[in-house]
Amino acid sequence: MSRQIFLLILFSIAVQAFFRPIYSGGGGEQDCEKTSTSSPSGSTPSASTPSASTPSKITPKYSYTCPKDWNLTTRTPSQFNGQTGFLCTKFITAPASISVNSASELCKKENAALTAFENDEERLKLHDEARKHIITDLKLGSGGVAIAGDRLPQCVTQNRTVLEENMKNPPCNNPKQEYTLPESAHTNAEFLWNSWAPLEPSHDIAGRVSEDCLQMIISSNNRNGKINDIYCTVETFWNYGAYCGKPVDIVTV
Ligand SMILES: *[C@@H]1O[C@H](CO)[C@@H](O)[C@H](O)[C@H]1NC(C)=O
Ligand SMILES: *[C@@H]1O[C@H](CO)[C@@H](O)[C@H](O)[C@H]1NC(C)=O
């Protein structure tokens, strides 16, 4: 037997040792676990190269999982996701319109926080799930999903004179600078600030409230799947769900 074949056999034993506990303890068809086992390279950042002298140390160290009913969403490894390359996400539905702040409470009840999509694949998945809820199930013509996002404090005003002044200069007049994502969103915002609906953010002011939060629009026009600035506290502005996220559970294997 050549040395190469010997190493190959050793390696396959190590790989089986890694997978077996996940398959037997996995609890079936949960989306997050399925994704985790089907992309071992993404979930085993510490896999070491097999070495004939130390076969017992070949097994990878970590597996990333999400609670039942949460999706293991793939993202680019970054400081926002602790370099794991994953976030647990969930679209929590609301049967009637809620404010962004109320949507945030829905996330908090599940030990999570409002998040936002980080790439186009994630954007489309959220869009599809929200569209099914709002258009197919609730039979509405259009709607929205509350996502994370805060207008910069220095750009928030209910005074139209101040707003006009703000809108003359960056950061308050710059769609890539005037909003920020809280740390709890665990999201790199670069893609998000390129996802505004046409003519948004519009900085509308209604009575004593201004549009300082964010939603994803579900509609049949060119605003569909794009983001819009919206009131944080008004319950009637078309949010029929919340996009929530929380860090993955890191399991030592
Ligand atoms: C979550 O996973 C389910 C089941 O695979 C899928 O139908 C849904 O679109 C996913 N939702 C999001 C927001 O990715
Ligand atoms: C709005 O701001 C301007 C400029 O600071 C100020 O003169 C005015 O009194 C404010 N209006 C209200 C209604 O507070």
TrEMBL record:
Residues 35-56 have a biased composition (Low complexity). The keyword Signal applies. InterPro entries: C-type_lectin-like/link_sf, CTDL_fold. Keywords: Signal. It comes from the Eukaryota. Residues 29-56 are annotated as: Disordered. Residues 1-17 form the signal peptide. This is C-type lectin domain-containing protein. The gene is Cnig_chr_II.g6818.
